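Many introductory courses stop at the sequence. We go one step further.
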Amino acid sequence: MDEARVAISEPWFPAQIDLRVGSTEGLDLPLVPNTWAVGPDGWEWLWLGPDEWLAASSDGTSKALIAELERALDGRHRSIVDVGAGRAVIDLAGEGRFELLSHGCGIDLHPRSWTAGMCAQTLLARVPVILQERGDATRVFVRPSFAEWLRTWIGDRVADLS
């Protein structure tokens, strides 16, 4: 694989909120498993489970959204947690990223199965990650303690596949 076919970002930290709520009434959240959508607030909402979502934003801070969610969900059983320091992000761009990811990931990343608007919790090189397919790039959410190691693994795979 030609290194120009995969661009790798340095690890960075977007604002992130983990939301767990039983009833989604009145909320504009993706309800189809393993999908994500941009909300009216500009935050990206990733479906993580039947009652769990990750909200991420490279532009915002979590305080305003947390306050808004607390108001909207008042009286409901819920958990709203700022997890921005809990996951770093590595962005992969270029047509070679699917081949690269397939060498360390067990899910089917072929374009017939893995398309823009999808997300999944999985293992990449034995490291727990969340993958978010953006169409022009794949975003990899990873615990900060694994971020640099995973970035090195990705760089090594690019070199191996060249």
